[in-house]
């Protein structure tokens, strides 16, 4: 579904959609973990529309946004512009959209019935979390399209952002840009070194407990329909995607043992949500995200493919006179099945 392009070029595809996402450590497809770009990626995959990804290094975000004619949608505490991703360009409608929530709205308007259907089905989204953070979230109007979802988005973002220190030090960058990126985070926080941004020991445990408590009411919403894994039971919506973006971030940046803990918090609702989103809308983001490839070790997939090619050569060598061997038929079926999964 997704093809990739390197930073600095202009990829195109049949749908004309290009997602601008933040490049973390290579391979970018596997390590991409920024929550808001993930909301946009999940929404695109939810709609099942083809798009290409443009990987942008963090220090280039401002230039890229400006070149797309997109103003900043956040401000630093001192009032200066904070240029962010995701952005989506749609060459068929000539639009450039620079906020994950607006991207979801755009997709819903442009592809109302595509893929898994309505991103915004009516539901009770009364989760509230209040707090103050160093870099304020984007401001939105109360009369926004799908304002209940927009409010839910703001409250969920606040709950996780207040605990972002648990994740910050686990971010991994492209070595070519790492020093500049770390320097920028230090500038923003006033830290003297990158390691000052880490949180360990008792303070970390306290922050983890605080996050778990902050998520209690949210988890209860996922338990309203016990069939799960989504807020509306078996029916996914953009509200699941909003939470899922943050779960992605945690899955990639928390130490493995902590991520395992998070997955089991509150009767495992977040672990189940993450797994379901990854399976249904995870896209081509590394082999580990392929259900079929998880079941069959990736190396064996390639071995099967090699075996298939060798068998084809062998069979062709013998001409088409005889009936294809069982081995050939099995290899062919396997190849088609793996192709099918690869296009899901
Ligand atoms: N309201 C915006 C917020 C986007 C946002 O905060 N993006 C973060 C990544 S999740 C970013 O681009 N950060 C860049 C940086 O920290 O320099 C949206 O939903 O798209």
From TrEMBL:
Cross-referenced Gene3D superfamilies: 1.20.1050.10, Glutaredoxin
Domain Glutathione S-transferase UstS-like C-terminal: 193-277
Top-rank taxon, per record: Eukaryota
InterPro entries reported for this sequence: Glutathione-S-Trfase_C_sf, Glutathione_S-Trfase_N, GST_UstS-like_C, Thioredoxin-like_sf
Protein name according to UniProt: Uncharacterized protein
A Pfam match: GST_N_2
Start and end residues of each GST N-terminal domain: 35-107
């Amino acid at each position: 579904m997704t093809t990739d392009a390197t930073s600095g070029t202009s990829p195109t595809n049949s749908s004309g959609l290009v997602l601008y996402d933040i490049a973390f450590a290579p391979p970018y497809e596997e390590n991409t973990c920024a929550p808001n770009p993930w909301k946009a990626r999940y929404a695109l995959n939810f709609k099942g529309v083809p798009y290409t990804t443009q990987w942008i290094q963090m220090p280039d975000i401002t230039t890229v946004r400006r070149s797309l004619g997109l103003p900043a949608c956040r401000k630093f505490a001192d009032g200066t512009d904070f240029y962010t991703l995701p952005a989506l360009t749609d060459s068929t409608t000539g639009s450039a959209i620079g906020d994950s929530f607006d991207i979801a709205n755009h997709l819903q308007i442009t592809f109302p019935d595509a893929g898994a259907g309505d991103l915004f089905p009516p539901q009770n989204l009364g989760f509230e979390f209040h707090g103050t953070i160093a870099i304020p979230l984007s401001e939105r109007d109360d009369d926004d399209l799908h304002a209940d979802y927009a409010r839910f988005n703001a409250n969920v973002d606040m709950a996780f952002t207040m605990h972002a220190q648990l994740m910050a030090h686990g971010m991994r960058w492209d070595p070519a840009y790492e020093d500049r990126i770390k320097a920028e985070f230090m500038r923003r926080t006033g830290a003297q070194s990158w390691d000052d941004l880490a949180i360990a020991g008792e303070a970390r445990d306290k922050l983890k407990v605080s996050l778990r408590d902050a998520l209690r009411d949210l988890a209860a919403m996922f338990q309203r329909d016990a069939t799960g894994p989504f807020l509306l039971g078996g029916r996914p919506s953009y509200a699941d995607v909003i939470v899922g973006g943050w779960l992605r971030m945690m899955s990639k940046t928390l130490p493995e043992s902590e991520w395992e803990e998070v997955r089991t918090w509150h009767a495992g609702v977040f672990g189940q949500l993450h797994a379901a989103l990854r399976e249904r809308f995870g896209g081509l983001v590394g082999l580990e995200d392929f259900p079929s490839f998880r079941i069959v070790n990736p190396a064996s997939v390639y071995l099967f493919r090699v075996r298939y090619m060798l068998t084809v050569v062998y069979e062709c060598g013998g001409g088409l006179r005889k009936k294809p061997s069982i081995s050939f038929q099995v290899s062919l079926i396997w190849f088609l099945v793996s192709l099918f999964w690869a296009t899901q």
